[in-house]
Design a protein that fits this description.
single chain; Multidrug-efflux Transporter Regulator, Chain: A, Domain 2; Rossmann fold; 7-stranded mixed beta sheet; two-stranded antiparallel ribbon; 48% helix; 9% strand; binds adenosine-5'-diphosphate; binds magnesium ion
Amino acid sequence: MTGYAERFEWYASVCHSVQQRAIELENQPDKRKGLRMFAPKEVAAILGISPGHLRNLHREPNFPPGRSAGNGRRSYSIDDLHAARAWLFDQTNSARYDPSRRENEGEKLQTIAFVNFKGGSGKTTSATHFAQYLALHGYRVLLIDLDPQASATALFGLHPDTDVAPEATFAGWTRRDDDADAASLAKRMPQTTYWPRLDLIPASLALQQVEYELVGTLLAQRRYPFYDQLRQLLAHVSERYDVVVCDCRPDVGMLTLNALIAATGLVVPMPPSMIDFASSGEFFRILAQIARDLTEVAPGALAYDFVRVLITKHKMADRNQEAIVAWQRAHFGGSALDAPMLETALVDAAGILKETLYEYEPEGNRQTYQRGLTAMNRVNASLEAELLRVWGRSATGQGLAA
Ligand SMILES: Nc1ncnc2c1ncn2[C@@H]1O[C@H](COP(=O)(O)OP(=O)(O)O)[C@@H](O)[C@H]1O
Ligand SMILES: [Mg+2]
């Protein structure tokens, strides 16, 4: 058994030097993550107007011109897109071009947690795509990565190990001193990203310790509200956002419990496979127990406007899956979202580049891309409809473009 220590040491040093090289590469200025340009067709769909209307708008004074390439083709940055929406709002005064919530009309901040027991059920994929969809459509969004594995954080181009200080994560909030100015600390937690209107509280492995630290503090101070930390943080920043999206870890520990209590809506991503049914069943049993326990400790702590099962990774051509999805829909009834998230190789292809479908620039088959994107938009539009319903607005014409 000799030699293993040396060999593993060697592996460790290889990992370290490869990581250093990767960081150097990615830190070159042109490799830093940014957002691609959008084509006129995409911009028209996102704004909910026809491509012809968008073309005509370019004759109007002060309409954002976008950028014109030599061949006369126009493209738009995300800032152009938001400027176009603001221009349309100025001209029409129509709420569809200013979807931000209206606090004075009682539209409250909504916090949507993506939760399930199992890794790989599509939590991070659905949470990040939903957050970006909302930002594209003009909402103000805060994404909170509550998984120490930090895959949502990595999708935003941050290296959890090197770019994210422990205090930049939710741990920075739970570790605050008793005499700290909580309000100003909370206001400093969200970081801007290269997505305008989408801020992030990132994750790193440091979050893992929060699981134990919260229990430790509870043992030291019997009345410590270990379950209420995220809700308290959000109370300080709520006026800046319309929607908070929480990406949770694949188990129900202290971090997930905090998300369950801060949330006003739950989305449970569930692939249509037997194994996932079994683990999702376990997950709901644990939720039931938590709900019972909390009735004594913190009555009223769980309060949801909606709980929805989201079918993920649906393989259209698979007949067994078709049958499972049909049962899933029939048995969950109104608790299942109508639109399933289709399994598409593009989510993986984009993911390898640390991109989402909204960021990915397809090179080959645009048709496949369009199909994947349309399915993703349908999922997100049906979640957006839930938000609008809670705010008492109708979904028609509000960002429901294909
Ligand atoms: N709709 C989809 N089509 C194809 N691959 C998907 C899809 N959704 C998720 N995946 C892949 O499945 C894996 C797990 O998804 P992820 O969202 O990270 O799950 P979780 O956060 O629940 O662990 C990832 O590699 C992701 O790229
Ligand atoms: Mg995840």
